[in-house]
Amino acid sequence: MAYEAIIGMEVHAQLLAASKMFCGCSADYAAAPPNSHVCPVCLGMPGVLPVINRRAMEATVLTGLALHCRIPPFSKFDRKNYPYPDLPKGYQISQYDFPFCVQGWLEVEAGGQTRCIRIRRVHLEEDTAKLMHQEDAGTGARAGAPQRYSLIDYNRAGVSLMEIVTESDLRSAEEAWQYLTRLRSILRYLGVCTGNMEEGAMRCEVNISLRPLGVEQLGTKVEIKNLNSFRSVRQSIAYEIERQATLLDAGGQVQQVTMGWDEDRSRTVFQRSKEGAEDYRYFPEPDLPPLEFDSERVTEMRARLPELPDAKRGRFTAQYGLKREDAAILVEERPVAEYFEAAVRAAAEVAEPRTVANWILGELFRLMRDGAAGIAQVGVAPEALAGLLALLARGTINATVAKEVLAEMVASSASAEQIVERRGLTQISDAGQLAQIVQNVLEKNPRPVQQFLAGKETVLGFLIGQVMRATHGQANVQVVERLLRDALARHTA
Q1: Which of 33, 158, 34, 26 is nearest to 87 (CA)?
Q2: HEC profile for the chain?
Q3: Residue 275 confidence (pLDDT)
Q4: Most exposed among 8, 14, 234, 423, judged by the fewest C-beta atoms under 10 Å?
Q5: Cβ-count burial of 400 within 10 angstroms (0-12 exposed, 13-18 middle, 19+ buried)?
Q6: Which residue in 174, 173, 168, 206 sits closest to 12, CA to CA?
Q7: What span, in angstroms and rounded, lies between the C-alpha atoms of 358 and 152?
Q8: How far is Cα 165 from Cα 185, in angstroms, rounded to an integer?
Q9: What's the rounded Cα separation, in Å, for the pair 419 and 449?
Q10: pTM (2 decimals)?
C-alpha cells in the first residue's frame, strides 16, 4: 500500500549567551572540567531563586520574528516535571501554554517545489545535564562481569535552550533536511546559535506517522529523540518510514513510543513509551514573573533583524545577475555572503560580480575544503582576491596561473602581486617569444597535426595544451591559439 508520511520537527538550539538561563554561571563549558560551571541555582539547591537571562529572551523573540511568528503580548514560564537524573531540580523551567512566539512559517524547497512549513511555537527553557553511560570490567567477586553505571556532568544544566516546534507539515526526509539546513542558516545569521550539531549546540527530535494516500485520518506517531547530525536526521526518517510501512503492510499496529537512533546499526531503537503533557504536570513557575511585550518593543526588535538568507538570495540574483543556485550557496553562511559583497566592491573596476562569484564558489571553496577552513580562516581578504582578479583582467597572468597564485595566497597570505613578481609568473604574450615554442610543438606532434589538417578541430586543444606545458602555464592562450592556427594554415598551403 502507498502511504503518506506526516512529519513534525522539534529543534533545540543552545543560545549564545555569556551566562546560563537562570543563573550567573558561564555558559562556555565545552572545554571545562566536569561539574565546574555550576552553582546552587543550576544545581537546584533549596532556597535559591532563578533570574531570567535577558539576552536569551531577546534572542528567542528575534528568532520568532525571523520565522514570521506573532509575538503575544503576554507570556510566562512553567515547570515541566519529570523524574530523570539529568535535571537536578526534578523539573525543567520551560514554557507551556504562553510561549514567546507563535504561528510562524518557513519555506523549504524540495523536489522542485516550494512548500510552507508552519511554525507552531518558539519558546525558551533550560538545558539538561549530560549523562555519560559507562561499562567497565568487573573486579573482585564479580570479576569478568561488566559493571554498568552512569556519570553526570552538570555543566550543561541550565544553559539557555530555545525550542522551535513545527506543525506536522513535512512529508519526506528530504523536506526535513531542507527545513533543518535553512533554519540553521537563519540562526547563524541572527548570531543566536552556532548551529553546530556535532557539538550539541543544535539537536533535533522528529515525530513521524503514516497514513494511506488519500486518507485524512492521521496515523499513530513515533518520536525519534536527540538526533545530532543532518545525516542522522535524514537516515532516521527514511528508516522509520520504511519500518512503519512494513509493519502496517503486515497487519500490525504502530505504537506511540519514543525511539532513539542507533548510528552504528543505522536503525531506530525503542527507548520508552511516549509521555503526554499530563505526564509532565505543567504549572506556572512561581519564582519567575510573567512577561509582557508591547507593540513598540516588538517593532524595535524587528528593526534589529539583519537581511536574512531568502531576502539576500533574491537581491543577489537581481542586483548582481547571479544564477539562483549560485546565490543560494553564497547566502547560506552570512560570512560568505559578506565576503562576496566586499570582493565585488573591491573588484568593481576589473571584474563582473558573476566572475567574482565563480572564483569564490570554484577555486576558493575548493581550497577551503582542502584545508578544512572557513571563509574567515582562509587567509585571503576580499581586497586580496580583487587584486588577483585585477592581474587577470590586465593580462598580467592567465587563468591557469591565477589558480596557482590563489593557492599560494591561501598558504602564505602573500598578495597576488608579490607572488607573481617573486616567482616570475607574468604571462607570456610576446608573439616572437612564443613562435619558436609553437614550431617545436608542431614538429614533435606530427600525427595530431595531420589529424587537424584532416578536419579534426578538437586536436587544437591538445596542441594548445602542449604549448602551455612548455611555458609552465604562462603563455597567453589567445596568442597561442592564433599562432597555432597561422602555422597550421601554412602547412595546408
Answers
A1: 158
A2: CCEEEEEEEEEEEECCCCECCCCCCECCCCCCCCCCCCCCCCCCCCCCCCCCCHHHHHHHHHHHHHCCCECCCEECCEEEECCCCCCCCCEEEECCCCCCEEEEEEEEEECCEEEEEEEEEEEEEECCCEEEEEEECCCHHHCCCCEEEEEEECCCCCCEEEEEEECCCECCHHHHHHHHHHHHHHHHHHCCCCCCHHHCCEEEEEEEEEEECCCCCCCCCEEEEEECCHHHHHHHHHHHHHHHHHHHHCCCCCCCEEEEEECCCCEEEEEEECCCHHHHCCEECCCCCCEECCHHHHHHHHCCCCCCHHHHHHHHHHHHCCCHHHHHHHHCCHHHHHHHHHHHHHCCCCCCHHHHHHHHHHHHHHHHHHHCCCCCCCCCCHHHHHHHHHHHHHCCCCHHHHHHHHHHHHHHCCCHHHHHHHHCCCCECCHHHHHHHHHHHHHHCHHHHHHHHCCCCCHHHHHHHHHHHHCCCCECHHHHHHHHHHHHHHHHC
A3: 63
A4: 423
A5: middle
A6: 206
A7: 49
A8: 17
A9: 36
A10: 0.85
Residue 192 identity (one-letter amino acid): V
Residue 400: predicted pLDDT? 87
- Calpha distance 166→467 (Å, rounded): 60
Answer whether 317's CB lies under 8 Å from 327's CB.
yes
488: left (phi over 0), alpha (psi -120 to 50) or beta: alpha
Instruction: Determine the Cα–Cα distance for residues 220 and 210; give it in Å rounded to an integer.
Output: 7
Report the C-alpha gap between 115 and 448 in whole angstroms.
55
Q: Whole-angstrom Cα distance, residue 298 to residue 295?
A: 5
Cα 330 from chain centroid (whole Å): 12
Q: What is the C-alpha to C-alpha distance for residues 227 and 212, in angstroms, rounded to an integer? A: 27
Residues of the chain with pLDDT under 70: 137-145, 274-278, 427-430, 492-493
At CA 267, angle to CA 132 and CA 85, rounded to 5?
Answer: 25
Contact between 279 and 82 under an 8 Å Cβ cutoff? The reply is yes
Distance CA 374, CA 345 (A): 21
Judge whether 388 and 399 are in contact, CB under 8 Å. Answer: no
Give the pLDDT confidence score for residue 249 in this predicted structure: 93
Residues 292 and 73: beta-carbon distance below 8 Å: yes
End-to-end Cα separation, the chain, in angstroms: 74
- Residue 485: its pLDDT value, please? 85
All three cell numbers of 71, joined, read 509575538
Write down all domains in the chain, each with its CATH number in brackets: 3-302 (no CATH), 309-423 (no CATH), 431-492 (1.10.10.410)
